[in-house]
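Let us walk through a complete example step by step. Step one is to write down the protein sequence. Step two is to encode the small molecule, MTE, as a SMILES string so that its atoms and bonds are unambiguous. Step three, shown after the inputs, is the structure prediction itself.
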Amino acid sequence: MDDDALPPESKLTRSKQRWASEHKFITGEGAGGDAVGSARPEPERLPPGQHRVENWPVLDLGRQPDVTRERWRLKVGGMVERPLTLDWAAFMALPQSRSRSDIHCVTTWSRYDNDWSGVATGDLLETVQPRAEASHLMLHGYDGYTTNIPLADFAAPGAMLVHGWQGKPLTRDHGGPVRLVVPHLYFWKSAKWISRIDVLGADKPGFWEVNGYHMRGDPWAEERYS
Ligand SMILES: Nc1nc2c(c(=O)[nH]1)N[C@H]1C(S)=C(S)[C@@H](COP(=O)(O)O)O[C@H]1N2
Ligand SMILES: [Mo]
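Step three: the predicted structure of the complex.
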């Protein structure tokens, strides 16, 4: 299922491709922009160009794979000393963590105070031991989605492989049984239904990055598009 062809383009997918080519939503107030004289009050919680929502929108390519805990596996390979395949029991045997963070989606919604439970990415990396040459990761979902991320961002505090939200199991529409959450980057980097992590010695683009989106995706610097 991991390597299935991507679903046919949805209307939202086409809109997002157009937004990248038009550089829609860019305010120029980001850390990388021309913000002289408009210093934001500290501490600012909402990144530039974002608005707050109370609900939790669902965004994906239009296919939500039905992966039970029994069938779910996570393969971690590439430039690591100890490649491995985790099943649900092995995943739950890793150190379990909790964290609270905000979601920032590149389509401009942000959702505050999400309580996550799962495995800290640092604890996973400790288990597989990336080699010295490792610099980036490619994340794969059971729907065929891919997204790239620098190793340092994946390893950052607050980044987690999540199986619970607000004290309940992560639902299928939000990427259950297990998804990535990297709260300091735009949410498209947080792969749902995660199936595979390839540790690489160089960066390469995933699905949205091929379609005009940024290789890193820092919301504070408005790294929306390439
Ligand atoms: N496997 C997979 N992960 C994915 C996506 C996807 O299409 N497939 N979409 C990304 C995008 S663009 C966003 S904004 C978030 C949305 O997560 P949510 O539906 O839980 O809000 O998931 C990201 N992770
Ligand atoms: Mo997104």
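Step four is interpretation. The first strand starts at residue 51 and ends at 52.
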